[in-house]
Structure formats: structure tokens, C-alpha cells
Amino acid sequence: TADVVLALHACDTATDDALAQAVRSGAKLILSVPCCHHHLNAAIRPEGPAAILRPLLRHGILKQRTADIVTDAFRALALRILGYRTDVIEFISPEHTARNLMIRAIAGSPVGEAAFVTEWRELRQFWNVEPYLERALGGTLTRWVQV
Description:
Layout lengths: L3 E7 L3 H11 L4 E6 L3 H6 L10 H4 L2 H22 L2 E7 L10 E7 L6 H14 L4 H6 L1 H7 L2
Parallel strand pairs: 1-2
Antiparallel strand pairs: 2-4, 3-4
């Protein structure tokens, strides 16, 4: 068990593994500073509902930044579904590092709130992706967000 889990600049899906371990261990506070986000960057396509974003997704750097934001939105939303009050904040000035977002999650919120579950399903459907965190959390999350 862990009361506090801190994950700094864990690359790609290592952040998701750290978040999953934090949830499994019943952490009361999670502070995560994600690094690179390759998993969804490779999966996001301008198809289906996301076709409207083709102008964003045709340029490598814009697609990468979009994937970063989408990945961290899924992470924050998963933690909300699992009973954490979650914020995504800028924790250090961008002049020091471009990777300056922190996901801060504090246990104690209701688990499985319908509005957050709906948001997860809609976001997943819009992007037509399976976030790695969904697999990493397994039944802990999928029991709420089965698609």
C-alpha cells in the first residue's frame, strides 16, 4: 500500500502503469508529471468523428501535442471515475521544461459518477482509441466504462 505516489517524467505508458499501481495500492494522493505520449500519438487518426480535426492531425507537432492533451485528459478522467478529485495543473514555468503538467489526484470522491463515465465513453468513441490506462487498470476501470 502507499499513501502518496509520485511519478515524475515517466515515459509513455510508464505513467499509466504508475497510475494503475497507485490506484491498486489505494493511494490517497497521486502526483504525476507525464513525459512523452507515444501510445495515443500512434493511434489517433483523422477518421470518423475525429475527421473534423484533420487540419490539426496532419502536422506532426500538432498531432503530438493533441495526443499529449488527449492522453492526459483520459488519465485525469479515469482517476475521477475511480474516486479521485483530479486537477491537471501547470506546476513549473514553461521556460524550464515543456513537460510542465501535473496530474494531481486526491482520493475521496464518489466512484463511478455517471457524468464522468459518459465523458469517458464519448471521448473514447470520438477518437476511436483504447487508452493504455484502460488496459493497465483492467477491471478496476472497465467495470465502469465498458464500451
